[in-house]
Design a protein that fits this description.
Helix content: 40-55%
Largest sheet: none
Number of helices: 2
Distance between the termini: 32 Å
Order of helices and strands: HH
Length: about 70
């Protein structure tokens, strides 16, 4: 691996560590669950908004590694 690529990846890991530290969640914190009506609504909305339906025009799917789509 090139040193430049390694530097980028290490920088990304350090940025993730910084973000995690800023969250205020202490290291080794035991996770808990929340099951409120508002949480369920938010999670269902996020899931519904992220669904993607694909049309199989021209029988493109499934993709073959030796075929271009465009």
């Amino acid at each position: 691996m090139e040193e430049k690529v390694l530097d980028i990846r290490v920088r990304n890991v350090l940025e993730a560590v910084k973000k995690a530290h800023k969250s205020g969640v202490p290291q080794g914190f035991n996770e808990t669950t929340r099951n409120t009506k508002a949480d369920r609504f938010l999670l269902r909305s996020a899931a519904a908004d992220s669904i993607v339906l694909l049309k199989n025009d021209d029988n493109v799917l499934p993709l073959k590694s030796n075929r271009t789509v465009c």
